[in-house]
Amino acid sequence: PKGTGYIESLSQCVNRCQVLRVFPWDVTAQKPSLPTVPTWDEFRLEMRTYRIRYAKAMANADGEVPAKPLDLYKIEAKPMVLFQAAEICKSEGNERLKKGNAAGALTKYDEGLYIMDKCQEVLVTWRLIFRQIHDEKAENNRKERGLKVSDLTEPDMPREFRTDENDERSYRLALLLNGAQAALQLEQYDVAETKAGQALEIEPKNIKALFRRATARLKRGRNDAAKSDFWSMLKASNFESKEALGKLSQLMSKEDLAKEWKRVKAAWEKEQRLGAMITELDGDERVSQQDERYQRFLADCAQRKADGQREISFDDWVRQYEWRYDADERQKVRKAWPEFFSHHGPAPLPVEEWEVDYQTHKEIHKIMYNRQTQAMAAKRREREGVPKPEAEEPQGSPSNCLELDAEDEQMLKDAVVRKGYHYWW
């Protein structure tokens, strides 16, 4: 049948194929009424409700996207690269803040803080790796080291890693302070108080963080907490902050301010005197002794490097060379090895095996060279028919064949040892 429309023709068709089995057509169906279109504000509030419900439902659930394992060897996991990215975010945020775009500046500062969170994750992972390596080394060498001397001198973290940690804290502190300032301009005082508090966790006596948190608390009506921050600000500035004093004069009467000023300053001076007394106390002698040992080790390492000798570890230095700085140990070694010493005092360094081998082979080469020279001279004289010259002995010279008694042999031995040829005995 031919109808005016596709639906009409399909409804009049005897063989409706397979279409109506899947999508059945009701002839009596009425036109559905569409829902009323909400306004944009109503739609936004409804979507906000749905988003809050979705966020609460996903709070304790696994993420939609599985977290990727941290790869420390990629370029985006390098602390230097992360510091550069945070510096860019900080610079762009400062430019936006100067132009009056506080919202954009706060967004950039938050982006920089996100980068610092990633950097902190990287640094914590490296810290665990360094600690594991240090512990494994200490455990493997525990029997050789005895009391674990290296644990008292060798740092468990490289100096470069300490520098990265300090840079991470400084960047985070700057981003938090700038973010608090941007939040104050946007009148988001709760955000400003939170960011200033996080900055104070990094540096408790930071005057900017104290002032911005006190300002945010003052705007939120928390006068007592604001006054506490202003007093902390005065203590951190040695009672020289005019801004904190001006704010306190607005919050307190003159009599109360003078009375509280006197009380707080007296307590602060008492704390200062107590801190000075504690810092003036003598330190632990074991720490100073260990520092002195380590300085001796560094001095010996420098001397060995200047002499072209191999580098040694602190453990090897303790076992082999530290006895030279102890009078009792030197006396024990002098008694045990008298041929290494003379009336001039102890030898500067014990003779090592490679030095003995070198000196021995040097003397052997000298003897072989003399023998070969004498043999070649004898062949030349024989070839040329020159008689062998007789060696003229000086008058009064002893015979070549000497008979040494025990006393003369000991004197010769002492003379040779005094010259350094002690490896023949």
Write up what this structure looks like.
With 425 residues, this protein is mainly alpha-helical. 68% of the residues lie in helices and 0% in strands. The chain is built from 18 helices and no strands. Helix 8 runs antiparallel to helix 9 and helix 11 runs antiparallel to helix 12.
Looking at this protein, list some descriptive labels.
single chain; 425 residues; mainly alpha; 18 helices; 0% strand; elongated; disordered C terminus
Helix-strand sequence? HHHHHHHHHHHHHHHHHH
Q: Total number of β-strand segments? A: 0
Count of discrete alpha- or pi-helical segments spanning 4 or more residues: 18
Which structural class do the helices and strands define?
mainly alpha
Question: Which strand-content bin applies to the residues?
Answer: under 5%
Residue share in helix: 55-70%
Summarize the structure.
Helix content is 68%, strand content 0%.
Topology:
Layout: H1 6-12, H2 19-22, H3 40-58, H4 79-98, H5 102-140, H6 142-145, H7 149-153, H8 159-185, H9 189-202, H10 207-219, H11 223-236, H12 242-251, H13 254-280, H14 285-306, H15 314-320, H16 327-336, H17 353-384, H18 406-419
Helix pairs in contact: 4-5, 4-8, 5-8, 8-9, 8-10, 9-10, 10-11, 11-12
